[in-house]
Design brief:
With 476 residues, this protein is an alpha+beta fold. Helix content is 27%, strand content 21%. It has 13 helices and 20 strands. A six-stranded mixed β-sheet has the order 5-9-8-11-7-12, sandwiched between helices. The chain has a four-stranded antiparallel β-sheet with strand order 13-14-15-18. Strands 17-16-19-20 form a four-stranded antiparallel β-sheet, with no helix packed on it. Helix 4 (83-91) crosses helix 6 and helix 9 (146-162) runs antiparallel to helix 10. The longest helix is centred in the first third of the chain and has 18 residues, at 102-119.
């Protein structure tokens, strides 16, 4: 987290038109802005701080009353059995209204914050100083540890310092001017700062990551890659915030244990590791044993969370993991949660830019190969092995269980669209080698051969790199 600048503090100055309110039954062009103004006035919470909390939580998107992954509702992310129930008691509004009505939800969030401020004995003067609300904001997070509570509150105050200029799903623009303050962290000043990389070398597998361990019930202690090979990286979108996701992983035991190895923040690409890579995080069903999972702050249906900074940071993490385990940097091995066999999730969703992401994973701003080995070999073929050809491409071995045929394809990664020397070959034991070689724009192959109950030797070439396997995969 950047150091927060010290400027004059104080409550936001509200236009007289907002303080005056509206006649009963009147509608305005700015209903959410009016709701923030009214809630701030009613509960004496600085209006710009209230907006910063909402933007940090949801980007002002109530998601039509649908809950986040951790059970939070509305623009203020009121959480079931926590802030939602408290808001219902304080505002005398039903939970269903608080979940679905933006104005009620904002009022509910303000009411909870005021109650927390009262517990801290903030008097009228203190309530006007946004910096005095820091501990209330930290408690509002419901975080499972002081370190994550501090992370949450620091995020809100950084947003307050940056200001807000955002559109709601209805097209309304809500603004809050940049207003840096001096946060009174109180006891949270002694909590670990998760915006700093871990100083414990044994805690993280990725040097740039902070360390916030998940609850022991949310992962399985293992000894990978000795116990299970790691050959996949799974990309998730959290349906929640950075701090909220880390806190959710620290909460347990619960009926549906959940975790991922890493969480990446939207605004600045900060990374926190919550499960060691040697251990199995519970994130991808059938792929838990073989994969590393990366959660990304945000919601699948709101593209504003997917910043270029997030893409670059996550791609650097993915590249690091792939290099350490020898995982090919392609879409067969780097997959979305929705692509995991048997998955019932949709993340990362239609707004996730796979083309940009894979460009960054490859360390290139150039194009990505539009062809996959499955497409080249045809219907029924599935990848059973692969080998990287330096940075120039990857050669794949596929098998079709319906007809007992193998297929080899070499997919280029560089010089895409330009014809360069590329080769794919397949040799069934006891038969002549079949080779496809030439100057190709995107791939060499397909080279197919019947190989049921036979061992095969396979490989290819791209750029200056060549691979040739021994006879293997006998019978598949």
């Amino acid at each position: 987290m950047k150091n927060l600048r010290i400027l004059l503090t104080g409550a936001a100055v509200l236009p007289l038109s907002l303080l005056a309110g509206q006649p009963a039954g009147a509608t305005t062009a700015d209903p959410m802005a009016d709701a923030f103004a009214k809630a701030a006035s009613t509960y004496e919470v600085p209006r710009d701080l209230l907006v910063s909390v909402a933007y940090s939580e949801t980007h002002l998107d109530g998601h039509k009353g649908r809950p986040s992954a951790s059970g939070g509702y509305g623009v203020m992310h009121l959480v079931t059995a926590k802030t939602l129930d408290k808001a219902a008691t304080l505002t005398k509004k039903s939970a269903s209204v608080l979940k679905s009505d933006d104005a009620a939800n904002i009022a509910g969030g303000a009411a909870v914050l005021r109650a927390l401020g009262d517990e801290l004995k903030l008097d009228a003067a203190a309530r006007k100083d946004a910096g005095k609300w820091y501990q209330a904001i930290a408690k509002y997070s419901g975080a499972a540890s002081p370190a994550v509570a501090r992370l949450y509150a620091d995020t809100v105050y950084e947003q307050l310092a940056q200001g807000v200029n955002a559109k709601t799903p209805a097209g309304e623009t809500v603004t809050a001017p940049a207003r840096a303050v001096t946060p009174d962290r109180g006891p949270y000043a002694d909590a670990d700062d998760l915006d700093q990389p871990s100083t414990l070398a044994a805690s993280t597998d990725y040097p740039s990551a902070a360390w916030a361990p998940a609850h022991s019930s949310n992962y399985a202690v293992s000894n990978r890659p000795t116990s299970d090979a790691i050959d996949r990286i799974v990309i998730h979108v959290a349906q929640g915030t950075y701090a909220g996701t880390i806190s959710w992983f620290q909460t347990g035991p619960r009926p549906n244990p959940t975790s991922a190895h890493y969480v990446v923040r939207s605004s600045d690409g900060a990374v926190t590791q919550t499960v060691r890579e040697k251990d199995r995080a519970f994130h991808a069903g059938d792929y838990n044993r073989r994969s590393v999972g990366i959660e990304h702050e945000g919601w699948v249906e709101n593209a504003t969370w997917f910043t270029d900074t997030m893409y670059r940071s996550s791609a650097a993490l993915t590249r690091n993991i792939a290099d350490r385990y020898g995982i090919p940097k392609d879409r067969t091995h780097i997959v979305g949660h929705n692509e995991v066999p048997g998955a019932d999730h949709t993340d990362p969703g239609r707004y996730w830019d796979w083309t940009k992401y894979m460009q960054y994973v490859g360390g290139s701003g150039g194009g990505t190969n539009p062809h996959t080995p499955e497409e080249v070999c045809g219907t029924g073929y599935k990848v059973i092995d692969s080998n990287a050809l330096g940075t120039a491409g990857t050669v794949f071995l596929l098998y079709n269980s319906a007809n007992g045929n193998n297929c080899v394809a070499t997919i280029k990664k560089t010089s895409l669209g330009t014809a360069t020397a590329t080769t794919a070959f397949l040799e069934v034991e006891g038969k002549a080698r079949v080779t496809d070689t030439g100057n190709f724009e995107y791939y060499a192959g397909p080279v197919r051969a019947a190989a049921a109950d036979k061992c095969v030797k396979w490989g290819g070439k791209a750029g200056t790199s060549t691979y040739e396997s021994p006879f293997e995969h006998c019978g598949s």
